[in-house]
Design goal:
With 161 residues, the chain is an alpha+beta fold. The protein is 27% helix and 22% strand.
């Protein structure tokens, strides 16, 4: 069971310039929570695709709109091996069962975000939020022999100090 309070809460705006930093953050946090380099990269890719979809399709590329990213570590101690990420927005709502990737036989640029998200994560659940917007919950577990989660390096004042 995942604890109610996230380990990390990030609020960003619907600006594509934010995406690189979010990818790097998800990659680093995934590794801290016991994901292999490959698994952490896959989760970063899924989050990037989801954020691109929110910006492009949900907000119609309007800048300055809110997006929230919450991250939890999985496992008995909440520290691995794996992560759960929730992405929420206030964009237009759509029926979750209508969210589909396009047919892979339809060869053309773009339109593969939903397919990629579902392919690289262990779980991808789309939901309407109660008042406005959507929620996407992504889960990635480490199934191989991942290294133990790493602690923050020692420094004056401890982690983040």
């Amino acid at each position: 069971m995942t604890k109610a309070e996230p380990d990390m809460l990030l609020k960003l705006h619907s600006d594509p310039h934010c995406l690189c930093g979010v990818r790097e953050l998800i990659l680093a946090m995934g590794k801290r929570y016991g994901l292999s380099d490959e698994s952490a990269s896959r989760m970063a890719l899924a989050v990037d695709e989801a954020l691109c979809n929110i910006i492009r399709h949900g907000y119609k590329s309007a800048p300055g709109q809110p997006i929230w990213v919450r991250l939890w570590g999985l496992g008995d101690n909440g520290k691995g091996p794996g992560v759960r990420i929730e992405i929420e927005d206030e964009a237009r709502q759509i029926e979750p069962d209508t969210i589909r990737g396009r047919d892979l036989e339809d060869i053309r640029p773009g339109g593969l975000g939903v397919h990629i998200i579902r392919e690289v994560t262990d779980e991808a659940v789309y939901e309407k939020r109660p008042d406005a917007g959507m929620r996407l919950t992504l889960v990635k577990r480490e199934t191989g022999m991942a290294e133990a989660p790493t602690a923050c390096p020692p420094r004056a004042g401890g982690c983040g100090g």
